[in-house]
Amino acid sequence: MSKRKPLSIVINTLLGGALILGASAASAYDAGDKILRVGVASVQPNDSSSELALDGTAISGSEAGVKSNEQLGITFTYMLSSDWGVEVLAATPFEHDIVANTGALGLGTVNAGSTKHLPPTFSLQYYPMDGASNIQPYFGIGLNYTKFFSEDVASDLEGVLGNGSLKLDDSIGLAFEAGIDYAINDKWQLNASIWYADIDTEATFKFDGGNTIKTDVSIDPLVSMISLSYKF
Question: What pTM does this model have?
C-alpha cells in the first residue's frame, strides 16, 4: 500500500558530487579502523498483508499497510582487515502509522493504529576497492532484529469497534546492504547507504467488546541513509 521514490537518485547525486570535487583524497581502510556514520535514515516499507481476520473470519478484500518514517540513523563499523568489516546499524525510534483497507466490511481505508520500532542490524561488510581510490563502495549481509513497542489503536477504528489495544510481534530476518563512501580527507567521508530487511510480524487488535482482528504483515522495507562519517 506504500509508495516510494527511486533510491538510486540519492546515490547518483552523491556520486555526481564526488566526481565534481575530484580525487583529492584517498580513503584507505586498515584492520582496526573504526568508522562512525551519522545521518538521516528513511524506512520505506514494501508492505503486504494477509486479509484481516475479524474473530477468526477473513474479511474479503481487506489488507493492512505501514507508512514510511525518517529518523536519526547511526552506524558503527569495525574493520577486520582492509577489505572486511563488521557493522551495527542503530537509530532513534521509528514511528509508523498503520492503515487498513477494510474490504467487504465497507468502511473504506481507515487509520488503524501506530507503532514505534527499533531495528538493530548486524552485518558483515566487504570493501572491494584499494586504498588509492577516494570512492569506496561496500556491500554487506547480516541479521535484523526489529523490536515493536508503544503500539496504539487509532480513533478511526475505535469509533467502530470500541476501545482497544494493539500488539505487534517482534521480527528476526536477513538484511542486505550496499553503500558508498566519498573521502573528504583522511578522517571524514560523505556516505550514502541502503538496506533491504526481511521484517514480518503478526498484528493483533483486541477490543473491549470482545472483538479481535489479526493479520500477518510483511513490511520488508528499504532503509536509505545519507550521512557524514568519521574514521578513527
Answer: 0.83
